[in-house]
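One-letter codes give the sequence; backbone shape is given numerically. An example follows:

. . .
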Amino acid sequence: MLGVNLRPAVARVWAPVVRTLLRAGVTADTVTLLGTVGAVASAVFLIGNGVLFWGAFAVTVFVLLDMLDGALARARGGGSVFGAVLDSTGDRAADAAIFAALAWWFSGGGDNRMVVWLALTCLVLGVLTSYVKARAEGMGLTCDVGLVERTERLILVLVGTGFLGLGIPYALQVCLWVLLVGSTITVGQRFVEVHRQSQGRTLP
């Protein structure tokens, strides 16, 4: 839900960049691909090798392009169906790369099985959060409720990773525990909402 409130402010920041990209003929899909590849590469090669602060910083920069591609698409008159699917797929790939990179590092050089478990559990819950919404919308329902959506998920995991990289002990563990609880609540909220909307409806 935080992402909805942040988008207008981010759009104002990106406005000059959007105008420059429009003049240069850059498409929203190009920005989406750049953001996805950059976020995945930063997670794999930096966070996955224990460079936690700069990894979190780099991923954050590329994730911000996720809001730029939407602004660029709107400036061009509206996004395409392909662009929407590409954007959603890129989001899932970037999210998975972050949590997988954490699990990789802390199962080896980072040597912390608890963080591995937390990262993998948060990854699964993130997938479920997105899937319930997508499946509900595919059935003609709406499912925009939830305590923790993608913006909150990224803030928690990247802040925790960055702070741990700066030497703040247990920062990542605390953030992942908060994320785990919040994501569990969100999945429950979405099932309750789907159940409420689906009363009296049957499959064709």
About this structure: The mean pLDDT is 90. The longest helix spans residues 81-107. The two ends are 32 Å apart (CA to CA). The CA atoms of residues 128 and 187 lie 7 Å apart.
